[in-house]
Design brief:
There is one protein chain. β2, α3 and β3 form a beta-alpha-beta unit. The N terminus is likely disordered. It contains 4 helices and 4 strands, in the order αβαβαβαβ. It is an alpha+beta fold. It has one domain: OmpA-like domain (60s Ribosomal Protein L30, Chain: A, 2-Layer Sandwich). It has a 4-stranded mixed sheet with strand order 1-4-2-3.
Length: 164
């Protein structure tokens, strides 16, 4: 009798937990609440490195640089438009570096990169309070290798959705 009761309670709890999940096409998982989501799925806590941050794209940098080149500026203009259209989305910009250089140097460079991205977004009309920055230096590479092909993929500013 006790085993049957426990099985019933476990099944009931499982059913209640599953019933409360929202489908992926719910309004909370889509882009802007203004009806202009264009079929875009925005996953909470997504990031641009994995392609799960809605329309936000990772920005890449040259060696030993926090300057935004024309390609980066184009990407950031699109990111700013996405954020203005999706006013409830807040992000954390993560600054990253390749494996070359010391830990402290790369942490400082990663921070300059993240701040350059934040400043550009703010200049494009995104509220500063919606963009936080952090540097990981060389501690979180996306590409492993000891050549320019890997290094160029690691010199980046990644966008992580922190609120929706």
């Amino acid at each position: 009798m006790m085993r049957t009761t426990l099985s019933f309670v476990a099944a009931a709890l499982l059913a209640v937990g599953c019933a409360s999940k929202k489908p992926n096409n719910s309004p909370d998982s889509l882009g802007a609440g203004n009806g202009n989501n264009q079929g875009l799925t925005l996953e909470l806590k997504g990031d641009s490195d994995s392609g799960t941050a809605g329309g936000l794209q990772t920005v890449y940098f040259g060696f030993d640089s926090s300057n935004l080149d024309s390609s980066s500026q184009g990407t950031l203009k699109a990111n700013a438009e996405f954020m203005k259209t999706n006013a409830s989305v807040d992000v954390q910009v993560e600054g990253h570096c390749d494996e070359r250089g010391g830990i402290q140097y790369n942490l400082a460079l990663g921070e300059r990169r993240a701040k350059a991205v934040r400043d550009y977004l703010v200049a494009q009309g995104v509220a500063a309070k919606r963009v936080t920055v952090i540097s990981y230096g060389k501690e979180k590479p996306t590409a492993f290798g000891h050549d320019e092909s890997a290094w160029s993929k690691n010199r980046r500013a990644n966008f992580v959705v922190t609120a929706k």
